[in-house]
Amino acid sequence: MSQHVTRRIRVLVKAFPQPSAKHEETVCCAGVCEDTGELLRLFPIRYRRLDAANRFNRYDLVSMTVTKASDPRPESYRVDEGSIRLLERGKGLSDQQKVKLWQPFIAPSLTALEDDNKNSHRSLGIIRPDPDSLVFKVKPVAEADEDEQEVTNLVYQQQASLLEEPLTPLASPEVHFGYEFRSDGHQHWRTIQDWEVQAAYLAYQRRYRTKEKALEMMTQEYGQNIPTRNLHFIMGTMAKRRWQFILIGLLRSGLDPEELGKQGALF
User: What CATH number labels 5-92?
Assistant: First the structure.
């Protein structure tokens, strides 16, 4: 991909906002480029500074001007924030259309993805946890390890532009949500970095007015309901540890990607 090109992107995930001394706060996104068929990492995007008409969600089609980032990860592209235009909402896409977007990027396992990283520096991919291995867990912030603490400390050393009003600080996460799972027989734990998950928790708190009920509903939704919908994980490496894959997004569908592959083989 050449310098400064405009691309059409189907967004798959928005990660939790991160503080930035230069940009105030930024959101890293991942999406499939309609023009090239690539899975790309897109940043920095000051999502809450976008015009309301251009704020995008999962599966929305967005036009943006991108440039290959100095970040050595091959999928990383810098975005001209002012170029972002929402072209089409993704709500009308069928399960088949959605799965066709991300099916090509499914790796056989997390180990296979890590091997690809060693051989080709691949830093984005999708995996499916082993059947019946998922356990959704809530971890108090006080028990967070170093990587999880980075998310906790996001809020917020904001440095707003002199020409813009400061953003209302986001609430600091009270708890971490994550999954224990197996991939190709190997046991793993990953905190979920998808912005959707913390947003869901806050929405449950507003609806039910108690932390206990909100956590109960989170466990029901992410521990019981979502795993029945062919749950897949979007995995991406960290900028400072380019070999370490974290869980950046959750994909689910009423259509099993393996069944879609079988359908395709018939024609």
Answer: 2.40.50.140
Domain ranges of the chain: 5-92, 95-265
Averaged pLDDT for residues 220-241: 95
pLDDT at residue 169, rounded to an integer: 65
Model confidence pLDDT, tens digit, residues 152-169: 454 333 333 334 455 666
pTM, 2 dp = 0.89
According to the model, what pLDDT value does residue 19 have? 63
In angstroms, rounded to a whole number, what is the distance separating the alpha carbons of residues 182 and 135?
Answer: 10
Alpha-carbon distance of 110 to 35, in angstroms, equals 28
Round the average pLDDT of the chain to a whole number and report it: 88
Q: In angstroms, rounded to a whole number, what is the distance separating the alpha carbons of residues 94 and 262? A: 18
CB neighbour list of residue 116: distance below 8 Å, 6 or more residues apart: 107, 122, 125
Rounded to whole angstroms, the Cα distance separating 131 from 144 reads 27
Q: What is the pLDDT of residues 248-264, one digit of tens each?
A: 999 999 999 998 867 65
CA separation, residue 58 to residues 62, 122, 263 (Å): 10, 23, 25
DSSP string, 125-165: EEE-PPTT--EEEEEEGGG--HHHHHHHTTS------TTSP
Q: Are 126 and 105 in contact (CB under 8 A)?
A: yes
- How many whole angstroms separate alpha carbon 30 and alpha carbon 85? 16
